[in-house]
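User: structure tokens for J domain-containing protein, please.
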Amino acid sequence: ARIVPRKAPNSGDSGDQSGDRRSAPLRENINLSNLKIASCQLEAALAARLAGRAPPAAAQVPTTTAARTTTPTTATTTTTATATAARTTTATAATATTTATATRTTPRTPVAPAAPVAAPVVPAEASQFVAAAQAQAEASREVIRILKLRKDSFPTPAAWGFAVLDVPSTSTHDISAGQRGFRTLMRKLHPDKAGSAAGPGLAQAAEVAREAREAIERGLSLEEPPGAPRNLQYSMLCATAGNRKFKLHWASPEVRPEAPVRRYIVAALDPAYGRPLTAAVLEPDYCEALGRFVSVEDLTSYTLAEQELQKMPSLWQQPSATFHVAAANDKGPSKQYEVDKIFWVLSWTLDMPGLGGCGPPNHDEGLSGGMVLRERSGLELKAFPRELQPHVYGQTQSPRRGLADALRGAKEAAGEPSLLLWLAWRLGWECGASVRALHAAGVAWGTYPDALGIHCNAHVNNLVVKPPGVGSESNFLAALDFDMAFTQENFLPEATASHASLGLDSWEGILNFEASMGMKMVLGGSDFASTGVSNATSAPESHSLVELAMRDTLVAAYEAALKGGTDGHPQHVEMRRAAKSP
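Assistant: Done. Predicted tokens:
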């Protein structure tokens, strides 16, 4: 019979091509299929080595091509002769067998059992090949098993982690068991043992194993998330648009052994996304600038710079910004501590011709900017019923009645509406009078650029409250810290040329900076100038209007004294006596 090979259909054939459509199976997971094929190949090679022979080669193809290349006559003759010989041989053999069976009368001689075949001797290099093949096959099976596991199919992440690490259900499921399972599994998935048979899924399986170990440690850890950082504050280091920089500083959370602090997370509320985005993660590390290791106890501050947060452009296009700081450990982060609105102080004055108009936002601007002062005051006295605490109630009410009587008499005698606002006016007036006296004498308090920025001694922390009976009775304050002061004759414009944009390259610019950016800004409550003392105490929300009124009074009195204006709320003996009352 002649076998005619089937002709492959081409584009011009009109035959049935449904087989072509059926020859495109769905491939949902190519990686797992490749791993299964590689595993089967390794097992076949291993079986061949154990049998002491080489892996099976491809079957030999019969040499029918040579027969087909001969002439038809020769092919026919050869086939006929072969067939005739085959038939003759078969018939003769059949006849001989029948005759021998019929005529044999002697018993069959028993045949001795064959000697056992000795196991093939496997050379040393073959043993190494077998071990390597076993390791690769095992790695391939582990990769297939791990990648099939889905986290959402388990009740808890820890249960999924134990399944990935192949920890038996009969053993104790604790952190140490998970760590042992991780080490055992990673030995199987090591690239030196797994080779290239596991394919690209090897790295993915190793990453899943690490995630499984972390899920077990988080799920079974006895740690608790730490508390929130305390007393979060900020100080402005530079308010120049495009180069703004300020420093966050906080106190560590309350120390609890079950809730240790491992790191701090600083985040910024990005208005473009409507949620806080991580700006920095602070962890213990060696600091080259300090030349020592910085522990987690030392991580209580962080400097935020506009140049380093260019990926949040919307953050710097608003009049205020909100930042969060959270303490964290392996169990998770603490509740985030939010800074009450950080105002860009110069945002309202960038278009003004000079620095004289710089100042903090007024009450309306504060409300439009979304400033919120939190309620942090303690319990009011009315929370303690009089019948339950008669002693405490009586001890506190008596001094309050005496102070109220003294205030009422002082206000009537001086014609002042409020002792607190009168005192705020007096303090602001004395600050303005001090700056005016220095500048009129041709003395600058001490303003110059240095490596840390612009150093300015003209601020309220360089005025102290005098003890009673010291100096003039007409003043509450005394100025100090004149070690950096200089006169107009000693002023060197070339030393301040780098800050000419702020007017510091002239004597008038130096005095203007001290009067506005130094004293006035700090009196208004701004942290633009880092005075070494931050506004640690915030007024409760119920007293926010009172705080704004007092700061406005401080600034108004300061400007009146600086310009040589009229003292609208002068000294009065009764008011001074009431102000000094305990």
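User: Anything notable?

Assistant: Residues 125-220 form a domain with the Helix Hairpins fold (CATH 1.10.287).
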